[in-house]
C-alpha cells in the first residue's frame, strides 16, 4: 500500500527527463595583462574609491613620503615590526621630531593595552590586486594580524612589482600552494560595514584610515 509520500516522489521522478542535458563549461574570460604603470594606476583608483589614501613614491624616497604623512598628523606613536627588513630601515632613518617608534616585541597578552592605545601602525605587504584594488598581507609572528587591525591608522608599504592583475594570478605566480600561511588578509580600504538598509559606514570595527605607500621605480 503506497503512501502519499511515495505517490509524490513517483510523480517527481516521472517529471524529470531521462536524458539529462550536460551544460557546457563556461568559457574562461580572456586574461588582460596590464603594464606596471597600469597596475599602479588601477590599484590606486580602486583603493581611493574605498577611502584609502594612496601615495606613489619610489624606493629611495618612500621614507621621506612616510615622514611627511606622519608630520601632518598628531600621533602618539607608530607600531612597527623591528625584526623585519621594513622595520630595520625605519629604525635606521628615524627622526627625533616624528612620533616614537614602538616595536611589536611581545605576545598579544603582554602588549594588548599598548596595541589598542597606539594611534598608528606600519606593515609590509605581500602584494596587491589591481583588478579589485586590494592589498595582500601575510601575517606572521614578526608582523601579526593585529598590527593591521587594532590601531586607528594603518600604513602599508607596497612594492609596485608585486601588484598582480588578479588574485588568480597572484596565487599562480607566487606558488601559494607551496607556502601559503594559515592567515591571508585582503585589504581594500579602511574598515567598513553596512546596516540593514545597506548604508556603508567606514572605520567602525577596525582602522579608520588606510594609507598605502606604493614604491614604484
Automatic annotation (TrEMBL):
Gene3D superfamilies: NagB/RpiA/CoA transferase-like (3.40.50.10420)
Signal peptide residues on this chain, from the entry's feature table: none
Domain LUD residues, every copy: 41-215
UniProt-recorded name of the protein: Lactate utilisation protein C (LutC)
Organism for this UniProt entry: Candidatus Contendobacter odensis Run_B_J11
Amino acid at each position: 500500500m503506497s503512501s502519499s509520500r511515495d505517490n509524490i516522489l513517483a510523480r517527481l521522478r516521472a517529471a524529470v527527463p531521462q536524458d539529462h542535458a550536460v551544460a557546457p563549461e563556461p568559457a574562461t574570460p580572456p586574461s588582460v595583462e596590464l603594464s606596471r604603470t597600469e597596475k599602479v594606476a588601477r590599484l590606486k583608483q580602486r583603493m581611493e574609491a574605498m577611502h584609502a589614501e594612496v601615495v606613489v613614491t619610489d624606493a629611495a624616497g618612500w621614507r621621506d613620503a612616510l615622514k611627511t604623512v606622519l608630520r601632518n598628523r598628531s600621533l602618539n606613536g607608530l607600531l612597527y615590526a623591528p625584526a623585519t627588513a621594513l622595520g630595520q630601515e625605519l629604525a635606521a632613518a628615524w627622526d627625533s621630531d616624528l612620533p616614537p617608534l614602538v616595536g611589536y616585541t611581545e605576545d598579544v597578552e603582554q602588549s594588548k593595552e599598548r596595541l589598542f592605545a597606539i594611534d598608528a601602525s606600519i606593515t609590509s605587504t605581500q602584494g596587491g590586486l589591481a583588478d579589485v584594488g586590494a592589498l595582500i598581507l601575510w601575517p606572521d609572528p614578526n608582523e601579526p594580524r593585529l598590527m593591521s587591525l587594532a590601531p586607528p591608522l594603518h600604513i602599508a608599504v607596497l612594492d609596485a612589482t608585486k601588484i598582480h592583475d588578479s588574485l588568480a594570478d597572484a596565487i599562480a605566480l607566487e606558488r601559494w600552494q607551496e607556502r601559503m600561511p594559515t592567515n591571508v588578509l585582503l585589504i581594500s580600504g579602511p574598515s567598513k560595514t553596512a546596516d540593514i538598509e545597506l548604508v556603508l559606514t567606514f572605520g567602525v570595527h577596525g582602522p579608520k584610515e588606510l594609507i598605502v605607500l606604493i614604491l614604484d621605480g
